[in-house]
């Protein structure tokens, strides 16, 4: 009995350590030039160079079911600031500035993730 | 007949308790930055029934879980989340049942953490299916850490319940 519990606790500790390590690794690879990629249902709609976004501005992205997500772009970070999806998980995720976690709105199939941009991207394209 | 009525009544009360906890927890604003995390306090009831023993079977536990999930969706008005709660809840129950057998009805917090981890894995799997992309997996490390913490919290809560409410437990254990 005791042996089984110890093994289980070790497995749980390993899962914990693995998760922390995964997050730290994602954080450590901080993008030199953060570029936000906004996609809906797998199709890329916008690529925004966050380093070039000096002034804050917003974009409204309609979804297939008639809903919307309002995206706010700041210098170095991006967030969904309004949406009419039921859970509003995307809004509550807040601003993101690195690749460790994307913003995902499951009902609207919208995804914003930050990648490390290279030089061919300039400003807003899409 | 009279005894059967008592058991049915207790099952109803457990479902109502779980539902109350679920609705209350739902009313608490989510954690900033990590909105998909929850303590899952309603699992205290599931875990409690699972470890109650006596006349309380796995089927009773399942009935309370299903009742809570379905009524919870109706009460919170989030019918779209039923699939998530159901997948998470059922997988958690199976994991906790396996854990109970594995540790001979002991080590409740460990069993609870196993359930919480299974819950989060089940929900992520449904999210992948609904969303149609594996990018949802990026949340898994955060969810697993959250699951370990929340599983420990609910597990210790149930352990304390068994220690401090021996009289109550002795009265309801053998309801038929």
Short summary of the structure?
The complex is a heterodimer of chains A (126) and B (176). Chain A has 126 residues and is α+β, with helices and mostly antiparallel strands.
SSE blueprint:
The complex is a heterodimer of chains A (126) and B (176).
Chain A: H1 2-28, E1 34-40, E2 43-49, E3 57-62, E4 68-74, E5 77-83, H2 89-92, E6 103-105, E7 110-116, E8 124-125
Antiparallel strand pairs in A: 1-2, 1-7, 2-8, 3-4, 4-5, 6-7
Chain B: H1 2-27, H2 43-52, H3 58-76, H4 82-102, H5 108-131, H6 140-164, H7 166-173
Helix count of chain B equals: 7
Largest interface: A-B, 32 and 34 residues
How far is the first residue's CA from the last residue's CA of chain A? 60 Å
Let me know the average pLDDT of chain A. 87
* H and E string of chain A: HEEEEEHEEE
Which strand-content bin applies to the residues of chain A?
A: 35-45%
Oligomer: heterodimer
Task: Characterise the protein shown here.
The complex is a heterodimer of chains A (126) and B (176). With 126 residues, chain A is of the alpha+beta class. Chain A has two helices and eight strands; from the N terminus they run H-E-E-E-E-E-H-E-E-E. Chain A has helices at residues 2-28, 89-92; strands at residues 34-40, 43-49, 57-62, 68-74, 77-83, 103-105, 110-116, 124-125. Chain A has a five-stranded antiparallel beta sheet, with no helix packed on it. Chain A has a three-stranded antiparallel beta sheet with strand order 3-4-5. Chain A is globular and about 60 Å long. The longest helix of chain B is centred in the N-terminal third of the chain and has 26 residues, at 2-27. In chain B, helix 1 (2-27) packs antiparallel against helix 2 (43-52), helix 2 runs antiparallel to helix 3 (58-76) and helix 2 runs parallel beside helix 4 (82-102). The termini of chain B are close together. The model of chain B has no long low-confidence stretch (mean pLDDT 91). With 176 residues, chain B is an all-alpha fold. Chain B contains seven helices and no strands. At the A-B interface, helix 1 of A face helix 5 and helix 6 of B.
